[in-house]
Amino acid sequence: MPDTTPPQVARHGFTPALAERLRALLGDRGMITDPAEMRGYVTEWRGLWTGRSPAILRPASTAECAEAVRLCAEAGVRMVPQAGNTSLVGASVPHEAGDEVVISVGRMNRILDLDPADMTMTVEAGAVLASVQKAAEEAGCLFPLSLGSEGTAQIGGLLGTNAGGNATLRYGNARDLVLGLEVVLPDGRVLDMLRRLRKDNTGYCLRHLFIGAEGTLGIITRAVLKLFPRPSDIQLAFAAVPSVEAALALLNRFQRHDGASLSAFEYMGRFGLELVFRHIPGAADPFGARHEHYCLVELSSPRPDAGLRHGLEAVLEGAYADGLVLDATIAESEAQRASLWRLREEHSEAQKREGASIKNDVSVPVSRVPDLIAQASAACRALIPGVRVCAFGHVGDGNIHFNLSAPEGADGAAFLARWDEVAEAVNGVVRALGGSFSAEHGVGRLKTRTLAAWRAGPELDLMRAIKRTIDPGNLMNPGKVVISA
């Protein structure tokens, strides 16, 4: 099971006087103390943790956020930044001790500026990803960050975790999509780095400290995002392949054919798809025959005459002739494209509905993905006979969500109690292959001990030094990511 031990903290200073000052600052809409209304803010998405908090603070502006942080800091009250609460590692919920306030940026959700000439968009941290995508599309642009929770995930949380997603292969992680940031520091000061510059070589690039820090160094309140030309030609294929090795070979063929147009390449195993068919209404198998391995391939270009359909068909036909593809279907409409993408994007929700699951968000060099899936599957099946492997993900960038569902009929709680044991087995394979124990979900509360073990030495020393320098009182999201020595 994930570690549920709260950090050692002094008695909190959330007094009635502080509560009165915060309510006067934020108004009734900006401060929640009713336990029923608070539940969604203190419960982790998968239900692994349910914390407690004296209050949920919901500032409506950077100024309100900064003043709320200043008041809490003066009182020694610890704070948990939250933007969407879709974290999968417990980064965005408070501990059970009940002495941390949650500061949600959900009310700060405006799109402040969109400049098609600069190809930038300036947004508040509470803006929902789907709204940002839509605004970009309406302006003839593209914001390429895309993932299954985009209807609820907020920009501040996506940047705080350096989210990846389906288009990382072409556009990079969240870190690569940001030009400027505004951050409220743990003492309430506002760090204004909200610049739209493509080139700015003036000392340390401080914004990268906060992207991926999971709220441990401050609260992201605004961001300048990079936009790209909106694709005019999008082609999507869903292919059955004989093995993971064949999936990798197919990826290489598309890269060599026209790597610049390849925007996504996803892998799915049969078990994961069966969960989607079972639990997601309207999901259906694109093929009449059963296969064990599948790929989702997307090509896109801003040029309407890019000829992507011809190229997609040519690569698939050649791969079929060589035995790398067993069957394939190409989306003929936007509705079909959305339906095929849904088969991939609903994996997490389907597995959640199936019951107890252990998740491993790992990455290895792309060439070692087949080794990862084979060796980690063998290790977990030896550990827990009958365990069901649900491996899927972004094979194009080496990030596989190596998830495990409890054996049929097994006790879910007993299965989850073996979380650390299973993670150790998977991580042993990952480490031997030169990979990472966290590819895109982050560290949060779930993986702090793993971080300390894997990054011990100068790397961990520097992380702790940065945390002490920016947040000497350990007020901002304590007990997450980096635990003090």
From TrEMBL:
Domain FAD-binding PCMH-type, residue spans: 49-230
Cofactor(s) demanded: FAD
Pfam family, one: FAD_binding_4
GO BP terms, alphabetized: respiratory electron transport chain
InterPro entries for the chain: FAD-bd_oxidored_4_C, FAD-bd_PCMH, FAD-oxidored/transferase_4, Oxid_FAD_bind_N
GO molecular-function term, one example from the UniProt record: catalytic activity
Highest taxon in the source lineage: Bacteria
Key words of the record: FAD, Flavoprotein
Protein name: FAD-binding oxidoreductase
Protein species of origin: Elioraea tepida
